[in-house]
Amino acid sequence: MSRLVAELPAPTGTEPVRAGRRRRSRQERLAYTILLPALGTVFVIVTIPFVLAIWQSITSDDGTLIGFRNYTRALGNPLFYDALRATGLYALIVLPTEIALGLGFALLVHRAVKRPGLRATLYVLAVLPLVVPPVAVGVVARLIYAPGYGVLNYVLQSVGIAHSEIQWLSEPLLAMGSVASVDIWQWTPFVYLVLFAGLQTVPRESIEAAQVDGATWWTQFIYIELYYLRPLFLLILFFRMADVLRVFDHVFILTGGGPGTATQLLSLYIYRIEFRFFDGGQAAALAVMVLVSISVLYSLVTRALPLERA
Amino acid sequence: MRFTRRWLVAIRVALVVAGLGVAAFLYAFPLYWLVATSLKGKAELYQSITLFPRHPTLESYSSVLFERGFWVLLKNSVIVCAATVLVTLAVGLVITYPITRLTVPPRLRVGVLNWALSLRFLPPVAVVVPYFAIVRTLQIYNQPIALIGIYSLFNLPFAIWMLKGFLTEIPIELEEAALVDGANRWTSFRRVLLPLAAPGLMAAATIVFTFAWSEFLFALILTATPNAQTFPVGVQGLVTQFEIIWNDMAASGVIAMSVPLVLMVVARKYMVAGLTFGVIREK
Predict the structure, then answer these.
(1) Distance CA A14, CA B225 (A)
(2) How far apart are CA A45 and CA B122, in angstroms?
(3) Is B257 on the interface with A (CB under 8 A)?
(4) Which residue of B has its CA nearest to A286?
(5) Alpha-carbon distances, residue A299 vs A53, B54, B146, B193 (angstroms)
(6) How much is the ipTM here?
(7) In contact, A192 and A126? CB cutoff 8 Å
(8) A123-165 residue pLDDT tens
(9) What is the spatial distance between Cα B164 and Cα B277, in angstroms, rounded to a whole number?
(10) How close is the nearest chain A Cα to the Cα of B103, in Å?
(11) Which of A83, A268, A278, B250 is deepest in the core (most CB within 10 A)?
């Protein structure tokens, strides 16, 4: 029976020396001849847009330099702060909920479900939502929350919880909740899978020793399992935060950023500036600011990520 | 004593079952509702909501695919995704082969991998503005090639990390044996390494295909007509209409998710490894 495990990097410097000096230099030359053209091409293709974004952000449409005027306009736009607030609120709802639920289910299944067949089934079920196109998830959410034909109102009314139709998508907070619920639906399984795999790496001996010493399931979790899960929490947090910044599809389908700007996340905001207001300069300035903040954040956190880079 | 312990066990089992049951329901119901709605006929839409379709029919599927002509978008999606897979894997192999099979300075290898990883965190919307300008300058707006290029670029980090994982697992001695027997590098790559890496390549191909299949933002921005529009763009068109035809919309959703779901049954083992850049592996 195959099982998922978390593979954390081994300490560096353990790699055996493989070949003699002369062969290595010949191999190295071959490596460079294969690698450099491909890498160079990709690097140029990746870098051009950045340069172009910077260029667009400091010029006007006819190509004259205008300094930082686009940046001051971007920073002076009150909608920008609405977008930041919406993105922050979205992250604050989505990340803790997904981590709490994912951790809860990982612990539940780890402790209570021992049958390998059932574990394998749960694995498959948890993988499925990850590949459903966000657009399709948006459609599902629309069928559930939409005014008039949404099934949630129908269920709530027929059970007697609600007496009139709840406007899920036109009350700012409810709309944010609806949009966030879609994210939670789709990504809690990811958190579950990662943390469940992490729990499999906890050495059985330490758990048994703790149990002999009379540890309850709670102390066992706090003092042993949590220690092994720490790097994975970091991984989840960072990956999911990067994802929050790219959320676009399901929000676009479900609310389109509305009502007003209540669910207009940063990605939808930049889209709107560029393709609704056709303000390329301001959009480029926003894009550059996002890129710079991501790069700074990335260089701060990346070393802490538990990735095998060798 | 024994009696209470048995009760405690029973309560715990009940709680576990209840927890998993609620989760299963919350997971399954939205999907059920999507399928159920897609099976309803036009007439049923204007009656009150029913939890089961009264007269299940495939009418909405034929309406979406043929009357609305979405089969063209489906075809576009398949072409774009297949081409993306080919380009991504080819470039991915060219980059990962030297850093995993040949002796290179560790710093170069780490540098390449780190750089690929950093691309994973690039929010697409931040480069939408320059890409739009580039695509219009190159006059490939509303053409599949624009999407193929961009999807290949955005999937390259996943491909590099997955291929690196698969290639390092193949013992280097096998290739060295072929080299000793007089094969050149290319032959040993083609005849020894590729067949051994085939399962891994298939897994990477499947995952790249599903990612490309789901992409929406660039498809929305860079296409305008069925000449290049992909299926998700069509789905979106059904949603934002003034009068939403619910069963057609649901059917388009079912079609959009069925392809990756079927593929995932094949590659499920590798999905989590791909998404976590190899931190979570199946043993």
Answers:
(1) 55
(2) 14
(3) yes
(4) B126
(5) 21, 57, 30, 35
(6) 0.88
(7) yes
(8) 888 888 888 999 999 999 999 998 878 888 888 888 888 788 8
(9) 10
(10) 6
(11) B250
Long-range contacts of A198-207 (CB under 8 A, 24+ apart): A198/A6, A198/A106, A198/A228, A198/A229, A198/A232, A199/A106, A199/A107, A199/A110, A199/A225, A199/A228, A199/A229, A200/A3, A200/A4, A200/A5, A200/A6, A200/A110, A201/A5, A201/A6, A201/A8, A201/A228, A202/A228
Structure tokens at B179: 């080299």
pTM (2 d.p.): 0.88
Residue type, A89: L
Q: Which residues pair with B281 in a beta bridge?
A: A5
**Among all residues of chain A, which has the CA nearest to that of B149?**
A45
* Residue that is written with structure tokens 């529009």 in the block: B229
B175-226 pLDDT per residue, tens? 888 888 888 888 888 888 888 888 889 889 998 999 999 999 999 999 988 8
Chosen from B15, B121, B259 to mutate, greatest number of chain A CBs within 10 A: B121
A141 chain-B contacts, CB cut-off 8 A: 30
Of A30, A271, A298, the CB nearest to B102: A30
pLDDT tens digits for range B239-278: 876 778 888 999 999 999 999 998 887 777 777 777 777 7
- Asked if A144's CB is within 8 angstroms of B102's CB, the reply is no
Residue of A nearest to B26 (CA): A185
Per-residue pLDDT tens over the stretch B152-181: 999 999 899 989 988 888 888 888 888 888
For B100-110, what is the mean pLDDT? 85
DSSP E strand stretches across chain B: 280-282
